[in-house]
Amino acid sequence: MEFSGIKVDVIRKNIKNINLVVYRSSGKVRVSMPKYISTRLVKEFISKRVGWIKKHLQIVESRPRRIVPKYQQGETHFLFGEPYTMVIKVANQKPFIQLQGGEIIMTLRPGSDVVAREKVMREWYRKELKKRIPALIEKWESSLGVKVKEWNVKKMKTRWGTCNTRAARIWLSLELAKKPIHFLDYVVLHEIAHLIERSHNARFKSILSEKMPNWKAVEQEMNHKV
């Protein structure tokens, strides 16, 4: 569908409510709707929110375009919010990364292309993130009086984390390895809090406010920081 020159992807699902999302990464606008709702009602829903959609699209457009990394000499990469300069070394051995001062030193096999370099970097980020997560999970488990049965890290395009409340399992975004550590702390709290309250309702928000009074400021920073 198109409204005031804005393309909106409309998807029918087995859900109860109409959900409108403007994706900060791509600028795409998507509406998820229950299967039983008529197209007319969806058009009315979107028409009333055109102003809100335009406002958020302007925010997306005002952000600097994401630079696709090539993992080469001199690039800047981040670990938990801190910038490091990439240094490339070549050797006939298993690739690895080490930190030294303000540098990320990546040792690669001869002829390693950007795909191979990205894989080395991704697994290093995963390893570094997994070092930090257990202590945070333990902290919030103790504070909230719940138990996480399983957790892991994976690439996520649009989310910082997810929680399967039935399995008491949480997943955390690999991108958190690049962000300031208080982002990770908040996301761990957020997902574990879902083991007490599944919805983002007043009770859920009161839990966050009690445990992390500045959570709204952290969430706003996360949603607007490039």
Notes on the structure:
With 226 residues, this protein is an alpha/beta fold. It is 38% helix and 26% strand. The chain contains six helices and eleven strands. A four-stranded mixed beta sheet has the order 1-2-4-3. The chain has a four-stranded mixed beta sheet with strand order 5-6-8-7, with helices on one face. β3 and β4 form a beta hairpin. The chain is globular.
What is the string of helix and strand elements? EEEEHHEEEEHEEEHHH
The low-confidence parts are none
Biggest beta-sheet profile: 4 strands, mixed
Residues in helices, as a percent range = 25-40%
Q: Indicate the radius of gyration in whole angstroms.
A: 21 Å
Question: Reading side by side through the largest sheet, how are the strands ordered?
Answer: 1-2-4-3
Structural class designation: alpha/beta
Please tell me the overall pLDDT: 91
> What overall form do the CA principal axes indicate?
globular
Distance between the terminal alpha carbons, to the nearest Å?
Answer: 29 Å
Residues in β-strands, percent = 25-35%
Number of discrete helical segments: 6
Can you count the beta strands?
11
Short description:
By secondary structure, the protein is of the alpha/beta class.
Quick tags:
single chain; 226 residues; alpha/beta; four-stranded mixed sheet; 6 helices; 26% strand
Explain the layout of strands and helices.
Elements: E1 2-3, E2 6-13, E3 19-22, E4 29-34, H1 39-47, H2 50-62, E5 76-79, E6 82-90, E7 96-100, E8 103-108, H3 114-144, E9 150-154, E10 161-164, E11 169-173, H4 181-193, H5 202-211, H6 215-224
Parallel strand pairs: 2-4, 6-8, 9-11
Antiparallel strand pairs: 1-2, 3-4, 5-6, 7-8, 10-11
Helix pairs in contact: 3-4
